[in-house]
Amino acid sequence: MNQWNNFSKGFFKENAVFTLLLGMCPTLGVTSSAIDGLGMGLATTFVLVMSNLVVALIKNFIPDKVRIPSFIVVIATFVTIVEMTMQAYVPALFDSLGLFIPLIVVNCLVLGRAEAFASKNNLGSSVIDGLGMGLGFSMALTMLGSIRELLGSGKLFGTIIYPEDYGMLVFVLAPGAFIALGYLIAFINQVKKEA
Amino acid sequence: MAKTESTLKNMVLTLLVITCVAGASLGFMYELTKGPIAAAKAAKQQAAIKEVVPGFTNNPGDEMYELTSKEGLALKLFPAKKDGELIGVAIETQTNKGFSGNVKVMVGLKPDGTIINYQVLEHKETPGLGTKMADWFKTDKGNQSILGKHPKKNNLTVSKDGGEVDAITAATISSRAFLDAIRVAFDTYTENQSSQPAVTNTSTEEGGAE
Amino acid sequence: MNRLTVSPSPHVHSGDSVKKNMYGVIIALVPALAASLYYFGLGAAIVTITAVVSCVFFEWAIQKYLLKNDSTIMDGSAALTGLLLAFNMPSNLPIWIIIIGSLVAIGIGKMSFGGLGNNPFNPALVGRVFLLISFPVQMTLWPKPIVSQAHYLDAETGATPLSVMKEGLANGETVSTMMSKIPSYTELFFGNSGGSAGEIAAAALLIGLIFMLIRKIITWHIPVAIIGSIAVFTGILHLVNPEVYAGPLFHLLTGGVMLGAIFMATDYVSSPMANKGMIIYGIGIGVITVVIRVFGAYPEGVSFAILIMNGFVPLIDKYVKPKRFGEVVKTAKA
Description:
The complex is a heterotrimer. Chain A is mainly alpha-helical. Helices cover 67% and strands 2% of the residues of chain A. Chain A has one domain. A two-stranded antiparallel sheet of chain A has the order 1-2. Chain A is globular and about 60 Å long. The two termini of chain A are 23 Å apart. Mean pLDDT of chain B is 76; it is low at 196-210. By secondary structure, chain C is mainly α. Chain C has a single domain (17-319), classed as Orthogonal Bundle (Ammonium transporter fold). In chain C, 60% of the residues lie in helices and 1% in strands. In chain C, 49% of the residues are buried. Chains A and B meet through helix 4 of A and helix 1 of B. Chain A: Its main location: membrane. Chain A: Part of a membrane-bound complex that couples electron transfer with translocation of ions across the membrane. Chain A: Its EC number is 7.-.-.-. Chain A: Keywords: Cell membrane, Electron transport, Membrane, Translocase, Transmembrane, Transmembrane helix, Transport.
């Protein structure tokens, strides 16, 4: 497979959020600000790349019947590593993402890529696939986070664009996540149709 | 390379190896990040204390002691001293009367109980309403601010309840909860003042050695 | 009527049309509009005009530039949405919030689902709830009636009877002491209390109900089911402990019960088709309203209740089908 296509498919054609609708839990849960979305996306990208790498390495040693538990252990290990590292070096981000970091383990996207891609492809393609998918996921989360932060609290990446009193609170809350995601997906679909 | 077959021996062995490697690498990472995590937590606590009781020279985290309020809530007290003399105490207080769940506040009191400053540590209040408490009671506008006030001399309840503090617009419950947390801190601190060694050797007249 | 256009033959036309019914509802709202103009004066006029004009504008703009289909602004449905939205807002609401509310009501509540006839939720309520969650401070500052006639943004504000009650009960006061702090039932009936523009005068809304029943624009099932279930539920609670739970009359005359039961819940598109289904739907709204008011965090729950039951309408329609036109009654009982 062409490695560029392999990488770029994660951004648009097979974007985890906009096309596959995978990983909805963090997508809706942590995107109340752009920086949270970006942080979550990058943490997931790290886990995706590393778990794809390890799964591609050990895929031939794992008996078929225990492959899912094995993948989950690998993923959980990397998630815990990310969790501890973030707690140590970016405590503020760790606090605002909270419970959603350990929940990366159950992000369908990570297990999905391990099962559907890394266990069938070679090391290089798997790493590139993980990177593309992860960065595509980060992009989607940052976009959603930016929209919600801008509409909800009048800021973008923490910079004040307009006074917070004019912000629509609903976008900071859970219903706003659904509304914003719905319109974002509709918009992307429209662009795809025209492209 | 041939795929390993799904025999019982193979499956047990693979899972064993994977979990062992995972466990070992996690243990290694834990050792590696243990120091920085503790340092980050201490720094956060130190920063909060510095905000509510500025100007101390000791390490309040080392002299921390715990008290239990009448309501049975656990409070952490950090005596802040400048050159050995007590200039205030930072109290990590909480209340369960919030709009949704607990509200945790760090409040700095002078030895006589006057409020120096506060910082909201943890809460689950409604964004845009209850969340305003982080700045609301510091803002010098109308009767919003509680800084420099004394819970004994000033009636620190919201004006709807007959007090002299303006509640956050449309978030009376959160305002009540916040003021309740401050009251818990003050009451517990003053009640235990006489029995606490950390406070006895201060310039305040209220205390007194045992 | 919308349901006739989707049903199978026979296609005998009764002279009903979307347009006729929509304007009928608007006429029925005139007494309430008059009441709100009387009590809130200038503010009510500004809010109503802004909401109606912006709703019609957004409907026209979205249909022309996004959906690119035939314009339906002349059928009166957008104007009705704007009118109902205005009746749900405090009469001192800043204009930019009203415009956002209209955009949400028409854009998200109606056009996203494909326009008139396809919206599962009442568009005006979608707009109102969106504003209530987004701008809780502005949306819960109600101007006092009469005194605010000549004022707009600087009108004197006060709490609604419902939030006075809720606040008092939370502080451990009893219903009887709280009742002395709110307007009397007669005043509530004729509208002299704080509240959103159109929900204050029960009398004016009831005139609208009678008009719509006579003109057969709506049937009695939904309003009666809602008002009845609220009366029964709060009556039981009141009998259990009259000091903690306010009586049925208080609940019926305050807040948006009348407006919701008569004009909001009866929206053709988002309510069930069969009479039995309408009653189930109405009881659901009544019960949820009381649960939110008495046990929930918000003092008012009518709009949430109607939106929640809107979501159940497809399910209700699936199990309670309307009798087909011309169907022979099989048993003597039915």
